[in-house]
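Hi support team,

I've been running sequence recovery on a batch of backbones for a student project. Most finish fine, but this one hangs at about 90% for roughly twenty minutes before it completes. I'm not sure whether the input is malformed or the queue is just slow. I've pasted the structure tokens below so you can try to reproduce it. Let me know if you need the job ID as well.

Thanks,
M.K.
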């Protein structure tokens, strides 16, 4: 029996962690370890990297190399740099002016738009529309290196001068383009000088077609020295129904757009032939707006 641990002393041996052994009169305590099967420590899982074959790696390399090579060829090689610009539809406007705008656009984005794939057609359209007023503007890319610009010019009818600038415009007052005064030929179109506040708004002259047509009729009547003198320009001022026609080295003649043009021309002809004769160019103005009378100074 185990001394000191008999049942008579109501002592019970622990069923858990300690067991007693007797060796002579000496007691030896030995620990025993128990493991809970439900809470066993799990060993870490080791994931092995997939092993790819040489052939698979070669295919991936070829794909990436192809993408990089193709990208360089399409976007960086000289093959697709724009080299030719074709302009279709220019009549009064010089082709060179439109071509210059296109070359200007190729320098955008640090010059990368010289590549036909990177070229911004909308950017070029904005440049053209800022300066001109065309119908049916179209811009096309033709591989490998050509830009085609086509449009329809509005029919020029007048030259409009405002704020020291000159513009071509049609008979409805639509601005077509700004023009260098050195390139203007007044033999073909009437020059209208606006001495009022600016009238151009969104490429449109704020003037009635009636007034433009009256000036066109005046220009047709007096062009090519039909009445013995050359017309310099037509002047607009604060009098809404008045058109002033300035004669080169001569007077300014006042017309009423509400009165019959032929009747006023007849009055002028009679006055020059029967009364003024050679003194016509010495006068400051002739007034034709009031009835059958002609006033002059």
């Amino acid at each position: 029996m185990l001394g000191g641990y008999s049942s008579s002393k109501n002592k019970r041996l622990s069923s858990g962690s300690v067991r007693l052994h007797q060796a002579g009169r000496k007691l030896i305590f030995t620990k025993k370890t128990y493991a809970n099967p439900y809470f066993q420590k799990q060993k870490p899982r080791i994931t092995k990297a997939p092993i790819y074959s040489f052939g698979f790696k070669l295919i991936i390399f070829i794909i990436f190399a192809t993408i990089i090579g193709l990208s360089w060829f399409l976007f960086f090689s000289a093959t697709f740099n724009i080299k030719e610009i074709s302009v279709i539809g220019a009549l009064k406007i010089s082709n060179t002016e439109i071509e210059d705008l296109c070359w200007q656009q190729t320098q955008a984005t640090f010059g990368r738009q010289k590549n036909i794939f990177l070229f911004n057609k909308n950017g070029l359209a904005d440049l053209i529309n800022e300066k001109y007023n065309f119908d049916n503007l179209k811009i096309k890319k033709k591989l490998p290196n050509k830009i085609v610009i086509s449009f329809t010019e509005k029919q020029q009818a007048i030259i409009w001068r405002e704020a020291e600038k000159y513009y071509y415009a049609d008979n409805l007052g639509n601005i077509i383009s700004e023009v260098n005064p050195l390139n203007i030929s007044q033999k073909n179109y009437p020059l209208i000088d606006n001495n009022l506040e600016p009238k151009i708004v969104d490429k449109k002259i704020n003037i009635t077609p009636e007034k433009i047509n009256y000036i066109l009729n005046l220009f047709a009547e007096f062009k090519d020295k039909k009445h013995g003198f050359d017309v310099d320009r037509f002047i607009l001022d604060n009098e809404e129904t008045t058109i002033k026609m300035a004669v080169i080295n001569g007077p300014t003649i006042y017309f009423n757009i509400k009165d019959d043009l032929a009747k006023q021309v007849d009055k002028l002809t009679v006055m020059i032939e029967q009364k003024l004769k050679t003194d016509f160019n010495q006068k400051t103005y002739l007034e034709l707006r009031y009835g059958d009378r002609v006033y002059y100074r």
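--
Follow-up from support: It reproduced on our side and the slowdown came from queue contention, not your input. The chain is about 25% helix and 25% strand. No action needed from you.
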